[in-house]
Amino acid sequence: MWWLKAVVISASVCLVLGKRDFPPDFVFGAASAAYQVEGAWNVSDKSVSIWDYFAHTYPEKIVNNATGDIACDSYNKWKTDIELVSELGLHFYRFSISWTRLMPTGFPDYISEDGKRYYNNIIDTLLEKKIQPVVTMYHFDLPQSLQDLGGWTNPLVADWFANYARVVFSLFGDRVKTWLTLNEPISFCDIAYNVGTQAPGYISPGIGNYICNKNTMLAHAKAYRVYDKEFRSKQNGKVSLANQILWLEPDTDVDGEAAEKARQLMGGMYSHPIFSKQGGWPPVIEKIIAEKSKEEGLPYSRLPAFTKEEIELVKGTYDYMGFNFYTSRTVRDAKPGEKIGAWPFEGAPDIDIVIGVRPEWKQTDAWWLYITPEGIRKQLAWLKKEYGDIEILITENGCASSNADVDDEVRVQYYKEHLEQVLLAIKEDGVKVTGYTAWTLMDNYEWTDGYSIKFGLHHVDFENPNRTRTPRSSADYYASVVKSHSLDVNNKIIDEL
Ligand code: NOJ
User: Which of 30, 98, 154, 386 has its CA 20 to 30 A from that of 242?
Assistant: First the structure.
């Protein structure tokens, strides 16, 4: 058919011109996190983390009372996981270290030999297969013993974390060159303390979340400074943190200011202190919370201030930016008496905005995840506008489903459309995106959704003691993108001619 030939010819012209190719040194990976995949929650000398405790103590808060006790059994099946990564042809694998597996007391007085061996095995085997390890030091699983001392609301947590980071750098930094200190403080500070649906499960909106906010910034910064002083010259790696940022757009033309406020609350709180030239909290947010606190009769702001020294300590503590993206929301100012009431600002007491979704945005099986591929491009452009021409690694992006199907067309489409927007951000908007990470390598423990929501490139059979992994169509699709280093994958149409 002539028209098919025309399509093919233009497709091949595209191929030759490489319009849909990724830059030559662009890297692809997939991610997981310790509590979500490892299981073995009480094996050997591992101690209890806040997620072990939360899942065991408040089963009613989790779909089907699920726990991560066994999860994907990656503690035993790590070799299989690496095989999966290798079959996808990925350049890197992002995984996290469980603090309680490596340093069971929470402090550097005791390092677990088993913990050390486990992560050394993963790192060495990845490297043998020419896959770079990208390591997150903290993905939601604080030692419960430190939680008993206040956890992320105790200012000493910054030093506890820096001491843990020093151990991690000293054990693994000879081989690990890309680090993430903290994953998504917005989840374990704001969502956790505003609504209690994440460990540790305490509700302290407008107080606990802000104390946690400040301590995470100091913890990240102190770990970064440890790397600078003690390891960088020998190890030559890169350190950042991973923030999940929704694209927040004005509901209508008059809501530009409300949307910008919301962006500063979501993206700015954990970025401005580190990535901006001025450092410190985003000024607009700092002002609103100070005013509200005053109206409430408080002699200080509920958002703890940074001292001048702290601003300097935190500012500039990055070698790149880690960015997790899933979805978008609309924003408008609240009418008097109206409540925000919607994720991700549920329970947040200070910014009077209303969050919504557009009717044309398709919802996935996860209640919070609407498919908005253009959001990733817009958010990347916003990050560049706010913080300058910094290197950005997309540290998570992926699609939820509740069914176990291996034929996951919706997920294939999600990846394709998001990758298209990433390419546009690079090629049209000049954003320095250097890599992309699919969330997630395989179905795993999706926090309070238990095993009911799946994000995996591989299906995992949680009924089977072997936790059998099976590649989905999205795994095939992703592998072909990685192989061709382009969105013009595997020349299918040409083959069919
Ligand atoms: C971000 C978190 O880092 C990850 O743990 C979670 O599973 C995904 N979002 C999907 O909700």
Answer: 154
